[in-house]
Amino acid sequence: MWKTFAYSISLLFFLNFSLIQVKSQDTISVPLKVRAGIEVSGPAIYYSDKNILNAEGYFSVDLNEKRSVILDAGYLNFKYSQYNYSYLNKGSYLRLGMEFNLLKPDKSQGRYWAGIGLRYGLSRFTSVIPSFQKTDYWGITTSSIAQKTNWGHFLEVAPGVRTEIFNHLSIGWTVSLRLLLYSGTGKDLRPVYLPGFGDGTKTITTGMNYFIVWNIPYKKIQVILKKEVKEETDEDSDSDANSTTGNKSIKSTSGNRQQGTIIK
Amino acid sequence: MRKLIRVSLFIIIPGIFIYLGSCAPGSCFEETECYLKASFYKSTVLSTPDSLTLYGLDRDSIIYSSKTGVQPALIPLNASTESSKFVIIINGVTDTIEFRYSSYPHLISKECGYTFYHHLDSIPPFTKHIIKVIYLSNPTITNLNVENIRIFY
Fold first, then answer.
1. Does B5 touch chain A (CB under 8 A)?
2. Labelling A159: which of A150, A176, A235, B92 has CA 20 to 30 A away?
3. Contact criterion met (CB below 8 Å) for B86 and B54
4. Closest-CA distance of chain B to residue A157, Å
5. What are the tens digits of pLDDT across the range A71-117?
6. Domain ranges (residues) in chain A
7. B97-128 pLDDT per residue, tens
8. Which chain A residues are closer than 8 Å to B109 by Cβ?
9. What is this structure's pTM?
10. Would you tell me which CATH number, out of the four given (1.10.287, 3.40.50, 2.40.160, 1.10.10), belongs to the domain A27-222?
11. How many CB atoms sit inside 10 A of residue A64's CB?
């Protein structure tokens, strides 16, 4: 009987202590948002070069304070000509993936984003080579390649930053590194320009996107903050041992940084 | 004020990258010509003819005119026909070779544009005044420096 009573009291103390510890941890309220953005460098480039029109927008939803799902969609109208050939390509593309915010919640506050996006891209395009010429020993050979629709596939890694400049309005940019998986055209007639990817004659391309984004918070979540503790030196340990102020730090037993400083 | 500077930098720095990227000029540095590469052999040994003359049948212009040290010979095929016939004079003895092939367009690069690759259908028929055997080593004719046939004389 006494054993049961003692066990119950111990359990009560333990639960009470745990509850106090949870309550004593710092939390922050982080808004989760849905975002809709437009890419602005495409129209800006079109203003100076009428041969390439790229219109792109994106939609993303925060899953938590770190991760969000993103869907990019765009349209490309590309014309290119030089001394021996001309090339036309129209198409649309989708990029679906995840974005990871590398900022801590107390820094990002749901307003700032610095992180990396990983996406799978799918491009549907219709290309035609109205004419090309080849001059050699036998004279000039003129030919053309008929219009054909193809599907291209690629992967994209896109680190970048985004910041809220006004309420519900952000700007940001990403640098993209893209890997072509399949151009859909075979190795002889690779696309001169693949919508959403860039130069289709290369396996890896880079790009840069510039976004204006409209944010709408849809939910708030409480996030427990993880604090860094300064690594203790021997001197600190000694001074702690001799301290009479009553302040205590949790010591790192593994040598790594641990979370939480409890001040009694 | 500091915030304004930060925001300005946030906009300007990537803008500079976009501008520089969009203005990069493109030049063609790749080989754009696709020749059939023919190596010359005497018995089983690689052997450069003392003199080589080569021209397309019924063509006025000559590809090689009594040229020495040709190894391999670079033979241009006509992309607008399915066969090309050549007159070849090795060390003063004349033969003819007819190449039968299919041609297809190939994009070299955005800067260099398109060329024609060819695929030889069979071992080319030839007259046997000095040429003994023709060996087909690689039927695909591209802009790469790869031997396509061996001419034994």
1. no
2. A150
3. yes
4. 17
5. 999 999 999 988 889 999 999 999 999 999 999 888 888 889 999 99
6. 27-222
7. 999 999 999 999 888 899 999 999 999 999 99
8. 201
9. 0.74
10. 2.40.160
11. 12
